[in-house]
Amino acid sequence: MKRLLIQRLVSAVFVMLIASFLSFSLLFSAPGNPAETILRQQSGLDPTYDEIELFMKRHDLNRPFLVQCLQWLYLLTHGKLGVSLRTGEPVLEEFTARFGATFQLAVAAMALSVIIGLPIGVFAATKPNSLFDHIIRVVSLAGVSIPEFWLGLMLMLCFSLALGWLPCFGHGTVRHLVLPMITLAVGITASLMRFVRTSMLEVLNLDYIKTAKAKGLREVVIVWKHALKNALIPVVTILGTQLGHLLAGAVIVETVFSWPGIGKFFVDSIYARDYPVIQGFVLIIAAIYVLVNLLVDILYVYLDPRVRYEGRS
Amino acid sequence: MYILEVTRGKKMLLTGSILIFGFMALAVFAPFIAPYDPDDVKVEKRLLPPGEHHLMGTDGFGRDIFSRVVFGTRYSLFLALVVVSINLLLGLMVGSIAGYFGGLIDELIMRIVDILLAFPNIILALCIVGVLGPSIQNLILALVALGWVGYTRVSRGLVLSIKEQGFIGAAKALGGSNMYIIMRHIIPNAFPPLLVLATLHVSHTILSIAALSFLGLGVQAPTPEWGAMLSEGKQFIFTHPHVMIFPGVAITLSVLSFNLLGEGLRDVLDPRAREVLNV
Amino acid sequence: MLLKITNLRVYFKSADGFVKAADGVDLELYPGEILGLVGETGSGKTVLGLAITRLLPKTAAVSGEVLYRGQNLLALPEEEMRKVRGRQVSMIFQNPLSSLNPALSIGEQIAEVLREHQGLKRKAAWQRAGELLELTGIPAKWIRSYPHELSGGMRQRAMIAIGLACAPSLLIADEPTRGLDVTIQVQIVELLHAVTKGVSPPRSMLLITHDLGVAAALTDRLAVMYAGKIVEYGRTGEVFRNPRHPYTRALLDSHPSNGLIATKGFSPSLINLPPGCSFHPRCKKARKKCAHEPPLVQRIGMDHGVRCFYA
Predict the structure, then answer these.
(1) Taking CB atoms and an 8 Å limit, are C104 and A206 in contact across chains?
(2) Predicted local confidence at residue B146, as pLDDT
(3) Which residue of B36, B131, B142, B239 is surrounded by the most CB atoms within 10 Å?
């Protein structure tokens, strides 16, 4: 079991290295000169040749590819991900400064999804092919089909404009959190509901559920204790995927609602061709993603007593 | 239980297919169905609400939204199909190679695939398009960069099971080369679960394309792609909401139809396929 | 009489027709006795056990009467039936690896029955669970173990402990020795004997098995099942010495100690049963009547019945 985790760690590092190299090479295929773009944005006028040269020198943009690459890797190992061309601050700091807001949004959305999605998924599994079940299937399919950015805007239209209950931009109070949280949660709740339902259905068909019934246990106990404990195990494995959705969703939702998190900053940096930020953020996000998946693997092993001893899943 | 699943699957299959057929028809016959030229700018007719002359109203430039939505099917659907086809082929290749050769190659490939499997495609896509500049080619590149990964595992699994069934031995005995075997024997058998995966992937890709275009990093305005239309219409959301509603509904419906088709296929096809897909 | 089953039919609806898993079964079980239900796989034995405890899926159509202490179990509301299960009538299953919940300790799986039916508190239930484990030959200190940590024999013992937790009057054991090593089988048979005949008052058991050796060792009376019907019943010794139904004879002949004589043909599809007597296509003694009329049970001697025209 430990062997498996170490293997995972090694491949993760390997992938991260490839990712770093690729993201760096990407920079060199970029059209146009970032220095030019940034300077133009800053001053509003076309920069002169000298100004561009100066900028490039200051940011080490005129060295040969391999040198810059190695420089980049060297800095990486020291935790320095470069400096934003826009703000002048270190990329890592820009990230950590905004991470809190994104984390807040993500956790809230995840919590909402679990609170709503889990019980509904379980309940739908106990009444397969009933009207409720059919409705849930349709609703969850719809939930996965709606584009998040559009949903956000529609919700904004409805609750902010038409009803005036909630603010649509900004950050600060709980009321600001509601709309972005719901927008982000819809997609995740939908897939969670379906997955929980499928997993529960499989488990409810297994032999040990029949044994539990033969013991005369109450249905509530059978479903929520015997079945769910086993059904949740595969659900944990998709937590990694859900994280992916959260990250992707955060980028869009933050942009739509002007939520000051890493997603919005990332998109703004893309518009501005702030390459260090683009590269750096992708790497950090990749690292987080890898780390979380590793944690999920550990969690999975912890939850399934069988895997603990046999070392396989 | 199985019987019920199949009937429900058939219903979904039917509904999805009808919807997709409808969208395809719109895409192919767009010039005949759309009442106006989608690029026809008529500033005096800006922002008209839905009415008798303009089914869905007009946008900020006076263009008929209905016509634009109809033409938009071409971009969203065909682009998505192109992307998914490329991904399918790539994933099939990589997965077949991994499964066929086994050993170290297999280990290596599957390790990488494992890690990449749920990485948010869109972040990398944003990165690629952001750095290389927005254009359709870059868009396709961005969506293909990670898109093939999902098919690898399935392909490999199928190759492995086929290997055990001995088709390979027979073909080898007849003198077929490695490449020949992969092409002629493995790929045709892998089709059904891959088809389900691909269908669901199409819906995912339509969403990605729309999202990227919405952010201005995909298909660019003034092309009547739905995401781009939403991006243009964003500024009018509070004053003239109709500009935003219709393209969004179009996206949702097209995505839904592919989801229905995919789910329906999954229910109807061999339940063994469901195991392979792990759902 | 503890259990009286009358004209029990269990039909499953399938795409191709009705699967007649049980087609008019009559059985009687007396207090303190072990009744064996033998037959090949697919004869409907397990379905019978599940029918008694009402654990069949919703796709099963069940008719007839199952009288337990005079009460028709089939007519009870579900909530009442739940109170019977595990408390008065306990069923234990084969393949304890899949029949035990892998996520719960064996102690917990015993204790919860006690808490549910006897209202014991956590601590008391846990203590009693340990006692039950000892009773079935598992060291009490293993109470926190998980099913996959135990050997096959131990798991079966745990299964039995769970079944006995609330001291039911009737234990239904479905193939309790299947898949176990021969030496372990002997141990389980001894255990089953100890917990049924070895207690006072003796506990009744319906033993479902395809293993004639186990049936011979444990049972007082025997019922032989074929294609959803009881074809012969009687005292175990009598049936073994003097099998009257051709199928029973064939069953005994096929035992290794009797020469492993095979019977030609295959067990019939329960959807398309042969007309008349279900066994006639494979029967050496079959005559014209057998293909047209289904035979009824004939009593031959005290407590010995045969479903055959020419027994």
Answers:
(1) no
(2) 83
(3) B142
Q: Is C98 found in the same domain as C32?
A: no
Chain B interface disruption, residue of A135, A153, A161, most B CBs within 10 A: A153
Q: Where are the domains of chain B?
A: 2-277
Beta carbons of B131 and A157 less than 8 Å apart: no
For residue C251, give the CATH number of its domain. 3.40.50.300
HSE toward the beta carbon, residue B241, CA cutoff 13 A: 13
pLDDT in tens, A250-300: 889 998 888 888 888 988 888 887 777 887 888 888 888 878 877 887 777
User: Domain check: are C57 and C193 in the same one?
Assistant: yes
Q: What is the average pLDDT across A138-154?
A: 90
Residues C34 and C158 in one domain: no
Is residue C83 assigned to a domain? no
C96 and C136 both lie in a single domain: yes
Count up the domains in chain C and report the number. Answer: 2
Q: Would you say residue A39 has pLDDT above 70?
A: no
Tell me: cis bond preceding B222? Omega within 30 of 0 counts. Answer: yes
Listed ranges B88-102, C98-112, C285-299; the one with the highest mean pLDDT: C98-112
Which chains share 3+ C-beta pairs under 8 angstroms with C?
Answer: A
Whole-model pTM? 0.80
Q: How many CB atoms lie within 10 A of CB B90?
A: 16
Shared domain check, C288 and C183: yes
pLDDT reported for residue B172: 64
My answer on whether C215 and C292 are in the same domain is yes
A157 neighbourhood in chain B, CB within 8 Å: 237-238, 241, 244
- Which of A145, A150, A248 faces B203 most closely, judged by CB atoms? A145
Strand partners, C224: C38, C232
Cβ–Cβ below 8 Å for A207 and C95:
yes
Three-state helix/strand/coil letters over A109-166: HHHHHHHHHHHHHHHHHHCCCCHHHHHHHHHHHHHHHCCHHHHHHHHHHHHHHHCCCC
Query: Hey, what CATH class is B2-277 in?
Result: mainly alpha
- The pLDDT tens digits for A12-37 are 777 777 777 776 666 666 666 656 65
Query: Could you tell me if C126 and C22 lie in one domain?
Result: no
More confident residue, B234 or C110: C110
Whether the predicted pLDDT of C144 surpasses 70: yes
Mean local confidence (pLDDT), C257-273: 78
Please calculate the CA angle C115-C120-C125 and round it to the nearest 5 degrees: 75
> B157-196: per-residue pLDDT in tens?
877 776 766 655 666 666 656 556 656 665 566 677 788 8
**Residue A91 confidence (pLDDT) above 90:** no
- Domain end: C142, C167, C192, which one? C167
Q: Which of C225, C251, C227 is nearest to C305 (CA)?
A: C225
Range of C201's domain? 3-76+179-306
